[in-house]
Amino acid sequence: MKIRVLGCAGAMAAGHKTTSFLLDDDVLIDAGSGVGELSLEAMARIDHIFVSHSHLDHVLSIGLLADTVQRRRAQEGRPAVQVHALPQTLKALKDHIFNGVIWPDFTRLPTIEKPALTFHEFAIGDRLDIGRGREIEVLSAAHTVPAVGFAVNPGSGAHWVFTGDTGPNPALWKRLGELKLSDLVIECAFGNDECELAGISQHHCPITLGEELTKLKTPSVRVHITHIKPGERAAVMAAVEALKSAHRVTALEHFQEFELG
Ligand SMILES: [Zn+2]
Ligand SMILES: [Zn+2]
C-alpha cells in the first residue's frame, strides 16, 4: 500500500498545508487543508476519513469535501463518506461545525436516507479493517482535547505510525514497543524557545521530543517530524539534529510518499 503526505504543516502559508495523509486512493487520515491538493476525481474516491482530534487544522476539509463530492458520489452510486473518530470528536464536529450555522449538517443532507457523511465511533486500542487486507489501529495521544494517533498495518511488513498532536505520552511508547515499525511520524510543533507553550498546549518541542525518542528502542525505525509551523522549520530541525538521536530523523515533506508492505 501507499501513503502520500498531502499536508504536514502546523499552520498555513503558500506551499504549507495542514495535516492530511492519503492511504492508497480511498482513505484519509485527518482532513486538514492538504485535502485541497486532490483533484475532484481523487476526492470523490475517498470512502473513509480517520480523524485524530477535533482541532481545526485537522478537520477543516471534512465539510468542504462532503459538499464537493456528494453529487458526484450519488451519481456513481457510491455510499456516504464514513468519518471515524472518538465519540467526543464526533460530538465536537456535530456541535461546532455541522450545526447549520458554521456549515450544513451533511450527516442529514442532501437527504436523511442518503446523507453525504456518516459518523462512526472508535475507541483507543481498536483495530479497524479498512479493506484490501489493510488495518488501522487507534493509538492514544496526550493533547488538550481527546485525541488519538494511528498505526497503519499494510497487511504484511511493518507498521507506519502517526502520533497525532501529542505531548509526552507513556502509553504510546508502551504500545509502540509491542509493534514492528517501519516509520514513525511524530510531531514537533514548537521550537525550544517555545517549550513552555508546547507544554501548555500539549505539543512537543525538540527537548521533549528528544526525551520521547529515547523510548524508541529499534534504531532501524525512520522518524519523520511533522506539524512544524511555516517559518520555524530550519530552527526546529537544527534543534532536532542537535539531539544527536540514535534514529534517522528527518522533516516530513509535503507530497512525500511511503510504500508499505
Ligand atoms: Zn491539536
Ligand atoms: Zn494540529
- Radius of gyration, CA atoms, in whole angstroms: 18 Å
Into which percentage range does the β-strand content fall? 15-25%
Question: Can you identify the CATH superfamily?
Answer: Ribonuclease Z/Hydroxyacylglutathione hydrolase-like
* Order of helix and strand elements from N to C terminus: EEEHEHEHEEEEEHEHHEHEE
Count of individual beta strands: 14
Question: Class by helix and strand content?
Answer: alpha/beta
* Mean pLDDT reading: 97
- Read across the widest sheet, the strand sequence of neighbours is 6-5-4-3-2-1-14
As a percent range, the share of helical residues equals 10-25%
Number of helices: 7
Catalogue the unreliable spans.
Answer: none
Looking at CATH, which topology would you report?
Metallo-beta-lactamase, Chain A
**What small molecules does the structure contain?**
zinc ion
CATH class: Alpha Beta
Query: How many domains would you count in the coordinates?
Result: 1
Main pleated-sheet profile:
7 strands, mixed
N→C terminal distance: 6 Å
What is the CATH architecture annotation? 4-Layer Sandwich
CA-based shape: globular
